[in-house]
TrEMBL record, chain A:
The lineage of its organism: Eukaryota, Fungi, Dikarya, Basidiomycota, Agaricomycotina. Keywords: Protein transport, Transport. One of its GO terms (biological process) is protein transport to vacuole involved in ubiquitin-dependent protein catabolic process via the multivesicular body sorting pathway. It comes from Lentinula raphanica. One of its GO terms (cellular component) is ESCRT II complex. GO terms for molecular function: protein homodimerization activity; structural molecule activity. This is ESCRT-II complex vps25 subunit. Pfam families: ESCRT-II. SUPFAM superfamilies: Winged helix' DNA-binding domain (SSF46785). Belongs to the VPS25 family. InterPro entries: ESCRT-II_cplx_Vps25-sub, ESCRT-II_cplx_Vps25-sub_N, WH-like_DNA-bd_sf, WH_DNA-bd_sf.
From TrEMBL, chain B:
Residues 166-205 are annotated as: Disordered. It comes from Lentinula raphanica. This is Snf7 family. PANTHER family: CHARGED MULTIVESICULAR BODY PROTEIN, CHARGED MULTIVESICULAR BODY PROTEIN 6. Belongs to the SNF7 family. It holds the Pfam family Snf7. GO terms for biological process: late endosome to vacuole transport via multivesicular body sorting pathway; protein transport; vesicle budding from membrane.
Amino acid sequence: MALSTHTTTSGFLLPSIHSAPPFFTQQPHPTSLSIATDQWIQIILKYARHRRLFTIRVQDAETPGNVWDEILRNERINRKLLPSYLSYIFTQMVSRKVAAYDPPKQDRSILIYWRLPEEWAEVLYEWVSSTANMNTIMTFYEITDPPIESPLSALPIPLLRQAIAILAKSNRAQIIAIAEGEGVRFFPTTIKA
Amino acid sequence: MGGNQSMPKVTAQDRAILDLKLQRDKVKQYQKNLQAILDREEAIAKQHLSAGHKDRALVALRRRKYQQGLLLKTDGQLENLQQLVSTIEFSLVEVSVLHGLKQGNEVLKEIHKEMNVESVERLLEETAEAREYQREIDEMLANNLSLDEEDAVQAELRELQAAVLGEQPSDDVRLPSAPTSEPVAQPEEEEKEVVTDTARTAVPA
């Protein structure tokens, strides 16, 4: 049987292994399981990057009609990823630090780090610098929902907080909190001779 | 790099600005909501029309009109908020500029205290006096020398002059004389030779 790649309607190229029925079953043999899980994690990360999705839930495997359908289901071979396997994949992703349980202390939904928080911190700092918002007080809403599309649009707030915390460690950001809500101010780095 | 030196403290003005910006965000979100409601009301009106309920469509359109008015009003409020935020930020900049000017002024005053006009004048006078004095001393020393050994020095100078001038040809330096006739053009044969010579030289590839 010839396996082939397939391009989805959203323009995402699925690897040929995605056309193999056994790929959707949690393999008993540890080696094949680890290989298959690696492939699944790669696919999930790439798709999240492609469609700018930040969260995935076990529920997405249980019920169709959500954004992850193109990945979790393959109608052509009549297979879908079972929720139990997806849950196992989540644990693997979290242990490899490419995802985190969000909200914490549960295991049904994760926040995907298709870009690590450190990288997000740099992207955030660059964007603030290029939009001339240094030394001005900004609200979280301003950052995640700017009037002009930015690489940070629709960034989930927990990820934004992590990025700000990383910048605060290097003295490039400062969180300001008042009763109504929170804001953040970014500082240019002064090169000390 | 030590501690929190690079991050200024959060002042009450910062908090006020943040408050205003949060309000502005709320207004923006409210506007988004309104816009969504407007679109939905329009869809409902169309539905009713296609089903033939003209009166219900009218009601939906009236609701929509009212909400459009609300949207315009919130636009105005948003503008007010934005203006207030910009004014506050600008006045903060002005305050820091004023502060900078004041500090610069202070520094200048301090420098002027050390360097007032009278002391500068006095210094210049003293320098001039000292220079005069030095010149007198030089003259005296020069005088001493000439009284004792002026004749011997003059004799030495004459001898040196004679030695130097004796090597040169006597009298003036001879310059070449200017030509008295027009220059004659070279004969053409020579020119042709030159031309053919250049024609024959091959240029290496």
